[in-house]
């Protein structure tokens, strides 16, 4: 007898022999037992998982003269003819080479004649998705209402290419990928029957290489037997298939923990000189990081596909990496693998990607970083207990506004802090009440008029931050307006029709005459803050509000202007007072009115 490859020699002959597709085998056997056989089936799934094999077994089972538990006996003439491919009742058609409308017309003519032997004529069309659109359309009527003695079985690896009009006329069965454990069990059975010795690690390598396909696994098994003989070990398979040893991936992990860039470059040199596929190495490295992430997240190794020895290694190595770092490493490895496909210098791309992984800084969660900052503030911050100046209440000392955050390292021991010296712009004053004559000069506030409540509610100031005073804000307001107009004339026009009300803690409060100006300035707040930071030389925030007194003041100005075309003296003084941010703040805060 001539030699047969393992895939043909050990091809399943009954439903029970089909590995990993019990949901389909059970359904077909029950359909035969209850006489609920459909006139059309479509089998879809990956390559090498048993689609055509299941179609042949079904064809034998429904024509067998003496079936056993809805399985063919494989000994009668009809079963032997189907197995040997010479049956006049079962037709296997290659959809790739018989894809035209003429072949389907011939099939429609042949369907009109009954079976020469047995009960059913079975048409098995493999790779049915290769048929043309016209061929599918020619098949529709026959497929929907075939003679009672005809059964169609379609097989395809690309079910999405089959028209819905065909799918709706068939019973669909989806074949799944075969698991590694099922492939290992089948190969172990074949090796035992063939008197071949093979260790578990070697079986695992072959099963993983097959990627869920039993036919691929059996083909690799034949190749391994030809190379190694009757005694097969894992190292021989790695050498024959040129597979990267899993130990190399653990070397990469060690280089990352040691931050050894030189070792990473030497490792790339070893990979290139060894003739390994660089994309295959990166795919294996991605799987390695995935295994570490699974063990790190779950604390168990039952979800990773490797030998028991390496499962123990993963258990020991997973704690050296955080979950965030492993996610970043997986992303880097995937990006490097994608870039490698189109790179004219794949070795350089691999070296750069590996160096990025080795030099990757550890991740820190924001919540943890905030806790550390709070601890540093508690250790390094000091509160002043003395009064800031003569006439100030002791409440200044405990106020957060006068808490000193040193940028230097905290000094340990008993060190007393000296009272702070306050600048004039650090003192928040209470708005000045109007004098009987609203147009008299505004006097400077004294220390006794300092608003203690406003100071206690004030946020702590950073020593390196420039504090903007009211005078500086008003003095550069026109420069700010001109700069905004140059950048965006529409925004500058809206801003010129608003007024600066006051300044607190580098917060410019701007009063708008109506909602239109308010919405326009809020939409451009980031732009205005950037321009203000350049003009004032400090980090500035903007607050826009509706100022109902602004329109009244503008109306008063307009009325005064109409009654006196050339204002002078008192009229100019009134205009200057209304333009003062302090006066507008008094009007807003105290709902004041000007007495004419």
Describe it:
The chain is an alpha/beta fold and 596 residues long. The chain has 5 domains: 6-174, Rossmann fold, CATH 3.40.50.300; 180-241, Helicase, Ruva Protein, domain 3 (Orthogonal Bundle), CATH 1.10.8.60; 246-358, Up-down Bundle (Zinc Finger, Delta Prime, domain 3); 373-407 and 426-451, no CATH class; 470-590, GMP Synthetase, Chain A, domain 3 (2-Layer Sandwich), CATH 3.30.300. Helices cover 51% and strands 8% of the residues. The chain is built from 28 helices and 10 strands. It has helices spanning 6-9, 22-33, 51-63, 77-84, 101-111, 133-144, 164-167, 180-193, 200-210, 214-228, 234-241, 246-258, 261-273, 278-298, 308-317, 323-340, 346-358, 366-380, 395-398, 452-456, 470-475, 477-487, 489-496, 515-523, 525-536, 548-563, 570-578, 581-590; strands at residues 40-44, 90-94, 121-126, 150-156, 171-174, 197-198, 231-232, 499-504, 507-512, 541-546. The strands form 3 sheets. A 5-stranded parallel sheet has the order 2-3-4-1-5, covered by helices on one side. Strands 8-9-10 form a 3-stranded mixed sheet. The longest helix has 21 residues, at 278-298. Mean pLDDT is 80; it is low at 382-419, 422-464 and 558-573.
